[in-house]
Amino acid sequence: MANSEVLETSGRQLSVLHKKRYGLSFYGWMVIPAVILLLAITVYPFFWMIVMSVFKVAVRPGAKNEFVGFRNYIQLFQDHLWVKGWSIQAKYVGISLTIEFLLGFTIALLLNNIRRGANTLTTVFLFPMMVAPVAVGFLYLYIFNASFGWYFWFLRTIGILKKGSILGDLQWALAGIIIADIWEWTPFMALVLLAGLKKVPLDQMEAAKVDGAGPVRRFIDVTFPNMVPVIVIAVLIRFMDIMRYIDKIFVMTTGGPAGATKTVAFYLFDVAFHFFELGRGAAMGFVLMLLTIGLAIAFVNLLKRKGVQR
Amino acid sequence: MPESVETIVHERKIVTKIIIVIVLAVWFVWTVTPLGIMVLSSIKTEREAFATPEIGDWKGVLNVFRFKPTGQHYRALLIEEKFGTYVWHGLTASLSSAVIAIVLGTLGAYGLSRGKFKQENNISFWIISTRMAPIVVVIVPLYYIFRKTGLLQTIPGLITAYTTFNLPFALWLIKGFFDDIPVEIEEAAFVDGDTHWRVFRKIALPLAAPGIVASFVLCVLFSWNDFLFAAVIGGAPAKTVPVAIPELQTTAYIRWGPITAATVILVVPMIFLGILIRKYLVQGLTMGAVRE
Fold it and tell me: Which end of chain A is more exposed for a tag (fewer CB within 10 A), N or C?
C-alpha cells in the first residue's frame, strides 16, 4: 500500500512541477488546441446564429442587415408551414423510431439465439448504415419508380398499392421515406441492442431458469430490466440522428408532393437556402437547437447516473 | 411418459429454429436487395435495367439476371462527367478533416481523460451537444460566416465544416479509449523518470491506437457521406460525389445509368471501411456509451 502512495505522489508532483514551470498542467496544454478550435467553429457560429435570428439578413453579401427584434420568432407561430412541419416531423420520427426499435429488438433477439452464422449475418446487416444518406435516397427513388421500380412492382403485385406512384402520392410519400429510413437504420438498433443482450448477466438468467420461468417471463423479469439503459441510449441517438439529416427527403421528394414530406428540418433548409432568408432560418434553427440541447442534457445525465456499461 | 414430453420440447425447439431462420432470411433479402439491384443496374444498359416484369408476373423476376455486363456508365462518369475530380475533392476534404480531428482530438482526449478540470461536466456537455446538433441548424450561421470570410466554395471551407462534427466526435470517442487504460501502468513509468510526453507517446498512445484508428475511419466515413455541407458550403469548386449525383438528374430526364454507377462508387468503399472497423462500430456510433 505504501508503495502505491509513493507512485501517486510522484505522478502528481510532476504535474505540479509542470504547472509551475509552464503556467498550466501538461494535461491542460493537451486540451487547449482542441478547445480553441472548437470554440472557433462551434461556439462562435452559435453566437452568430443568435445574432442573425433578430435581423433580416440581406440576401446580397455586403448589404446592410436590418434589425427586426423578435419578429422572426413571432412569425414562426403564424407560419402554418412551420407548424405543419412539426406534425410531419413528429410523424416521421415517431413511426420510424417505433418500427426501427421493434424490428431491431426482434432481430437482436434472434441473432442472440443462433450460434452458426450470426457473425456473418451481422456483418451483412451493417451494410445499410455505411451507405451515404444521399445514396439511400437514390436507391429508393430507383426501386420506388412507378415505371420500372422493383419495389413498386412488388407492392402492386401483392396488391397493397392500388394505383399511382409511391413518392408522388400524398399518403404514400412519407411512408416511402420512412421505409428507406427503416432500411438504413434498423441495423443500428439491432446491433446496439444485441451488444446490450450480450451483457445481460448469465447468473440472473440461470437463476430465473431454475425458478422455472419460461422464455417470456425471463424476458420480462431479467432481459428487459437489464436492457433499459441500452434501449434509452439507442433510441435517443437514433432520435437525434433522424433530426440531424434531411438528405433522403432532399433526394426522394424535395418536400413534396404538395409539402407532404416537408419536415421542420427540411422547411428550415428551404427558408435559408432556397429563399435565402437567413435571419428567419437562424430563428428556426435556434428553436430546433434548444430542443436538441435539452435532449443532450438528458443524455449526459443518464450516462452519469447509470455509468452504463462502463 | 417422459419420452413424449421430450419430443414435444424437441419439436418446439425445431419450430422456433425454423421461425428464426425464416425471419432472418427475410431480413437478409430485404437488406441486400436494394444494394444488389443498384450494383446490377450499374453494369446494365438502361434498357436492360428498366426491364421490370408486368404487374403480377412473378416468373419475370428472373429478368434481373438477363443482361450483358457493360462498363459504359462508369466510362461516362469518369470521362464525360469528370467524376474523378469529385472523388478527389471528397477524399481531400474528408481525409484532411479526419486528420485534424484525430490529431487534436487525441491530444485533447488524453488531457481530458487524465487531467482534473473544474469545468469537466460543462466541457463534456458542450462536446456532446455539438455532435448532436442538427446539420441544418449548424449550417445557417456557418454559411453566413464563411460568406463574410471568403471560405465559401473552397476546399478549406469544407474541411472546416466537416471538422465541426468530426472534432467533438473524435475527442469524445478517443477519451473513452484512454479511460480504459489503467492509470497504474503510466504511474509506474513516471517512477522510472519518464516525462509526461514520453508516457503519452510510449504507453498510452500505442494502447489506444486501435480505437484511434477506428475513430479516424468513422470520421472519414461521416465526411465522405456528407451531403448538406458539401452542397451549401462546398458548392461547385469543392463538389463532392454526394453533391454530384443529384446533378445527374435534369427536369426532363433522370440519367439512371450513371446515377447507379456513381452510387456504387460512393457506397462500396465505405462498406469495406465499415467491415474493417466492425469491432468498434457499436461503440463509435453510440459515442462510446455502449460497447460490444
Answer: N
B34 vs A46, A153, A183: nearest CB: A183
- Where are the domains positioned within chain B? 2-70, 73-285
pTM comes to: 0.90
Q: Which of residues 17-76 of B touch A (CB under 8 A)?
A: 20-21, 23-24, 27-28, 30-35, 37-38, 41, 49-53, 55-58, 64
Class of domain B73-285: mainly alpha
Of residues A217, A222, A187, A295, the one with CA closest to residue B31: A187
Q: How far apart are CA A104 and CA A223, in angstroms?
A: 15
The answer, for B164 touching chain A at a CB cutoff of 8 Å, is: yes
Chain B residues with CB-CB distance to A157 below 8 A: 55-58
If DSSP codes are grouped into helix, strand and coil, which group holds residue B254? strand
Domains annotated for chain A, with CATH where assigned, are: 2-52 (no CATH), 72-306 (1.10.3720.10)
- Rounded to whole angstroms, the Cα distance separating A163 from A169 reads 10
Query: Measured between CA atoms, how close is B291 to chain A, in angstroms?
Result: 6
Mutate which of A53, A54, A138, A139 to test chain B, going by most B C-beta atoms within 10 A?
A: A138
Count of other CB atoms within 10 angstroms of residue A162: 7
Locate cell 442538427: which residue? B134
Q: Across the interface, do B133 and A292 touch by the CB < 8 Å criterion?
A: yes
Tens of pLDDT, residue by residue over B256-289, are 888 999 999 999 999 999 999 998 988 888 888 8
Give pLDDT, residue B4: 67
pLDDT digits (tens, 9 = 90+) for A204-260: 888 988 888 888 888 888 888 888 888 888 888 898 888 888 999 999 998 878 889
Task: Tell me what pLDDT residue A306 has.
Answer: 55
